[in-house]
Amino acid sequence: MAATFVPSYRTKLGEAYCADSLNFVPTLPEDSVNLVFTSPPFALLRQKEYGNKSQETYNDWLLQFVSMVYPCLRDDGSLVIDLGGAYKRGSPVRSLYNFRLLIRICDELGFHLAEDFYWYNPSKLPSPIEWVNKRKIRAKDSVNTVWWFSKSEFPKADVRNVLTEYSGRMKKLLRDPNKYYKPKDRPSGHRISDSFGRDNGGAIPSNLLQIPNSESSSKYLKHCRSAGVKAHPARFPSRLPEFFIRFLTDPGDLVVDIFSGSNTTGMVAEAEERRWISIEKDIAYTAASAFRFVDANYGESNIKTLYERILRGVCVDFSFQPKAVTLF
To answer: What CATH number has the domain bearing residue 109?
Structure first.
């Protein structure tokens, strides 16, 4: 799809590139991408090994990438950005960088805020240490803002694809609606009709996504250990991109991650039968992300060879035999 770039590896449905997205994204055809789902390095105070900008320069830096995404999105396409919050340096006061970014993406680039989501990670450790653990004057930070932007006011979306399981009380109501409620107007002004007792296959999810990020024994981590390489330190759980990929795209649609890291987005897109492109500028992270597409029992020596060949620029093809790798 990108003629001037060679993928580090490809699968039946996708391609992973080691490249700077500022150079790669303009090569994508206009009106070709259904969803860009990404989690860029956050504007944190502590410098991370994968690189992150200061709060003072962060929004100008990230807007460069977002502006290049706009032309390649389809008219009914979406851009979803996961951003962690941060504090101001030396003060127990929150930075507003992620909220300022939200405003600028809409006001300056022409995106619409389709909906604001919040990812609650119940397994997140208490932080920041100074204000939460030591002085005990703040609660732990365990929620990320996830902005869903759209190119038009009516992007492709179908909440029926992400219904959640009914609560126990709702299941009882569905078995015998007349026993648990009567159609009437509520004090709030909402009208509860007799269709409230209809089984729609699940409950409509809220915009608070409770997803633990506690991966410890995945295939990816197993192969990183066997190859003697460090896993990407800022991985998000597969259920996060899974929600938006199911919600905002159909099988065969194209999903792109412009800061792909360990390529969780590509792995989920492949499982959901979406085409995908991942872009990561660090070749070590790109090479290790290929572990997500090999068999869990792939031999340790083969894993090391796979990793080393990608480092040397050899494209690995997973597209024909899921449990075997063709190198060329």
So the answer is: 3.40.50.150
Q: Which residues of 245-257 are buried (b: 16+ CB within 10 A; e: fewer)?
A: bbbbbeeebbbbb
Annotated catalytic sites, by residue? 39-40, 82
Cα separation, 16 vs 19, in Å, equals 9
Examine the fold and report which residue of 151, 182, 203 is the final residue of a domain before the chain moves on.
203
- Tally of residues, the chain: 328
Contact by Cβ (8 Å): 292, 220 = yes
pLDDT at position 154 over 90: yes
Where residue 293 falls among pLDDT bands split at 50, 70, 90?
very high
- By the 8 A CB rule, do 203 and 164 touch? yes
Q: How far apart, in whole angstroms, are the C-alpha atoms of residue 230 and residue 223? A: 10
Q: How far from the centroid of its chain's Cα atoms is residue 163's Cα?
A: 18
Nearest to 3 by CA among 19, 27, 23, 20: 27
Full residue range of the structural domain in which residue 42 is found? 9-164+206-216+237-282
Within-domain flag for 2:
no
